[in-house]
Amino acid sequence: MATTGLATRRRRLSKIERKEALAAYLCLSPWAIGFIVFLVVPIGMAAYAAFTHWTIINPPPRWIGIQNFVEMFTKDRYFLWSLGITLKYMAMTLIPGLVISLILALFLNAKLKGMNFFRTVFYVPAVVSGVAVTILWISLLDPQAGAVNTMLRQLGVQNPPNWVGSSKWALPSVAIMSLWGVGGGAIIYLSGLQNIPPHLYEAAWIDGASRWQQFWRITLPLLSPTIFFNLITGLIGAFQVFTPAYIMGGASRWGTSRYLRFYLLHVYLKAFQEGRLGYAAALAWVLTILSALVVLIVYRSTEQLVYYEETGERGG
């Protein structure tokens, strides 16, 4: 039996089967080449660079072991500061963004005439270039002629914030701009809402359940996988803030770089302003590991709250 099985496994492929296998490998090769060239190789180079002294001016990297990581935790005054800025931004935007986008999705889910137009309008900020959005908000938040401060003065506010030019309001400025783009998350919520079977609401209505009870007992549990998805992607996105921080002043344009020095911006400045590629690679790896740990902790602590309709059970 064993000999027969071995012979079966070693059966030569027919001519048609060889052609099909070759065609499959040819179709997969562009993806495989791209995966290796643009992902595997850069990750390997970054892992090696993190343990080297590698600068733009002096290209040949020199192995220094863990000295980059030692310097990071003992001498880099902006390491913990930039990490704190990133975490503050996360606290300002993550939960408010989830709640606001959910509320917006509930309104967009209403069956009203012309609702498709409003869905498109609210989704537009999610597809507009981050640079264009940032420049738009720089104009809106201009302390003298910006639309935001003009409106605040008309409402009776005598001394409106200086926004990006203020150490107190620089970070909230970026957070406000981020919350303006909640339409992307709202569309994801909307797709989840429209996948909830209508007969569940009909049965609840017949049983006398109020709208709040329907939301709490039907909508929220069945929408929990979508909420969980937005939570995880929001966490990852908060660690990757760069464009608005750089343009709105993180690179010393407005003199508030210390208050908009997000972690990813700190990595960029170390790499391309100071030319320390090896040290920047070490910073990037710390960010990768830290974000992975945070996502894992959140995943483990919240998966029990996720309800899966297929099994009728919660995650875990």
Q: Topology of this protein?
A:
Layout: H1 2-9, H2 15-49, E1 52-53, E2 62-63, H3 67-74, H4 77-108, H5 115-127, H6 130-140, H7 147-154, H8 170-180, H9 183-194, H10 198-206, H11 211-239, H12 243-250, H13 263-273, H14 277-302, E3 307-308, E4 313-314
Antiparallel strand pairs: 1-2, 3-4
Helix pairs in contact: 2-14, 4-8, 4-9, 4-11, 4-13, 5-9, 6-12, 9-11, 11-14, 13-14
Short description:
The protein is mainly alpha-helical.
Commentary on this structure:
The model has no long low-confidence stretch (mean pLDDT 87). This protein has a two-stranded antiparallel ribbon. A two-stranded antiparallel ribbon has the order 3-4. With 316 residues, the chain is mostly helical. The protein is built from 14 helices and 4 strands. The chain has a single domain, classed as MetI-like (MetI-like fold, Orthogonal Bundle). Helix 2 packs across helix 14 and helix 4 crosses helix 13 (263-273). Strand 1 and strand 2 form a beta hairpin. It starts with a helix and ends with a strand.
